[in-house]
Known about the structure:
By secondary structure, this protein is of the alpha+beta class. It has 5 helices and 7 strands; from the N terminus they run ααβααββββββα. It is globular, with a radius of gyration of 20 Å.
Amino acid sequence: xxxxxxxxxxxxxxxxxAAAAAAAGYVLALRPRxxxxxxxxxxxxxxxxxxxxxxxxxxxxxxxxxxxxxxAGVWPWLVQLGAGRGGMYSYDLLENAAGLGMHSADRILxxxxxxxxxxxxxxxxxxxxxxxxxxxxxxxxxxxxxDPRTGRITASGGAPxxxxxxxxxxxxxxxxxxxxxxxxxRTRYDYSPLAVGLILRPALxxxxxxxxxxxxxxxxxxxxxxxx
Length: 228
C-alpha cells in the first residue's frame, strides 16, 4: 500500500518532534539523576574541596555512596588509583577493550600508598591526570587542562591554544560516624569553544555515569571487605 503525499510530508516533522521529545525527556528527567546519583540535594549543590580547580564549570556532576567503613579504611583504595596501580574499580573489561590496561586490585597495595601533589595518576599507557590537591584521609583532587585533540592533560597554566577542556575530578571522604563514611565524587568541566560542549555532553555524561557508578560501588565493596 502506497503512502499518501500528505503522510510522506509529515514523516520528517514527526521524526524531528520525536527526537526533540526524547532529548527533552533526557534533559528534564534522566540527566539530573545521572549527574547526582547517590548524592543528596545538599551534597550536589554545596561547595566541595577541589572546586577551585575549575572555577566556572559548564558541566558538573556529584555522585556519592555510603560506605560501612571508617574513612581511614577507604582512603588507601583511593591512593592507589590508576592503570598499572590499583586500577579504577570499574568495568575492567570495557576499559581494557579501549587499551587502557586496567586491572582493579582486591587488596591494598603497599607499594602504591605514597602519593603527593604533582604526581600523575595514569589512566592508560599514554594518558594520566595530575594530583592537584591532597589532604590525607579526606581529599584527593585531580585535574588540569586537556587538549581534546590529543587527550594530553597538563596541570595548569599551560592551557593549549585552540580547543581546550578544563577538568577537575575530586574525591571527598566525609565521616558519618566512627564506622560509616560518605564518599563523594565530583567532576567539573569548562571548555572552549562552545562547540566542544555539544560533542562532549551527549558522549561523556552517560558513559561517565556508568563507569563512575561502578567505581564507587567497587570501592564500597572493597572497603567493606566484600571483595569485587
